[in-house]
Structure prediction request, 333 residues.
Amino acid sequence: MRKHKSKTKKTITWADFIKHPFVRKNEPMLHTVEWSLILFAFFIIGLPIIYFQSGEGIVGGGKLKYMGNIENSTQSLEIAKQFVGETISEPVVDITGWDTYRNQWYGFEIKHPDNWTNMIFKTAGAKSSRYDVVYKFRKEESGENDPYIGFDVAVYPTKKADSLENTNDVVKRDNAPEDTSSCPLSDEMILGEENIVFQKASVRKGNACFEPAYFFSIKKDDYLYDIVPVAREEAEAPVNPEQDVNEKFPEYKQVVASFKNIPISRPLALPRAVARSRPSFKSCHLSGGKVSGGKIICAAKHDHPRNSPNKGHHMDEDCCMDPDESRNPCCSY
Prediction:
């Protein structure tokens, strides 16, 4: 009788599979691995899809809330732009039809809305005033909710103020340190079609050295010009003046961008014989006056200086000539 050897079924181990992964006898192990990968892929890809479609939050168990259509929500759009780091464009102001104010005495011109007819100026009075003259451009009317009433153009001789830090428009705090180099104050900014470089002063509330401020400055030859936005006296000082002006006074930056330097042109000096017969005066430094149509006139509405006799002992300083005053060559009566 022939004896048959009993065959014992050999168990396939991971070592055998790794050693011979594609051998036919390892096929059961291959099927196990395939199904394991399919189930793993289902959990990785399928669960997030189920999560977002059902609106159920597995972590925390809360419902996803509908926040509205971001395309139709300006606020959401601005938040989204800030989140991705995109710069939000400032309001575009149409300056077509604006009037141009030209000053040949101090060599500059600047545009302003055509309905801003109230323009006056003042000259330096106090010893602490470093400017020669300040031209005040004011809105004809402004609503109660409008905190800004216009802007000033302050003209400084560079002998008195060679940088914006030395002008009267930058106010140093009482408890400020002597060395203010560590306090941020200004940087350069290019504006206008001619790419003019301005110095921008921007000081937030809480600065250790300076009071809050925001304005642009430019220097040309012997003069420095500060273009400063002017708020109502009762208006509360904002924490960030630059942001506040950009939001509530969008015309201001367009005004600054329109600023241009022009050649200085001044009347020739009078002959000595004629000069001696007239009262002395310092160029066109007046204590008051109003500019209308390029001429300096009396700012008082009901005053008629042209009817006043020219018999005075001192010169008219506000273009509103009184009987005891003589005519000022800078005024138009």
Notes: The longest strand covers residues 148-157. The first helix runs from residue 14 to 19.
